[in-house]
Amino acid sequence: MNIKKITLIALAQVMACGAIYAASPDETNIDFALEDQTDAYVLETVAPKYPIEMLERGVQGRTLLMLRVDEVGEVSDIRVVTSSNQLFSQAAVKSVKKWYFQPGTRDGEAVPQIVTVPVDFLIEDLQTPALASL
Q1: Residue 25 has what DSSP assignment?
Q2: Predicted TM-score (pTM) of this structure
Q3: What are 73-109's pLDDT values in tens digits?
Q4: Less packed terminus of the chain by CB within 10 Å, N or C?
Q5: 37-133 falls under which CATH superfamily?
């Protein structure tokens, strides 16, 4: 077979498949419009109080929180996902309760969202990290 004939056969098959797909009755009611959606983001934070025991020992760490941001940007339902230390968890939760967010939106309307937030506990000018923080 020559190249022209193969190309025409392939083109005919593609067009036939496209016509079958386009005519599929299950596909005719799909709305292909994309939702206009934005995610919540932090407007105001309150720094966590560094646990004195961890500070004295030179221990740094991180707590990862999951929380709900409502339609007006207030925080609720805070849960600790993971944390390097329970003292950091407690300090992070206390701090994040006072944070304020720009709420997320869907089609221009504010909506509640679940957000994951890391809270880092770092000691400035720490020359050598404590072994417990590694």
Answers
A1: G
A2: 0.67
A3: 999 999 999 999 999 999 999 999 999 999 999 999 9
A4: N
A5: TonB (3.30.2420.10)
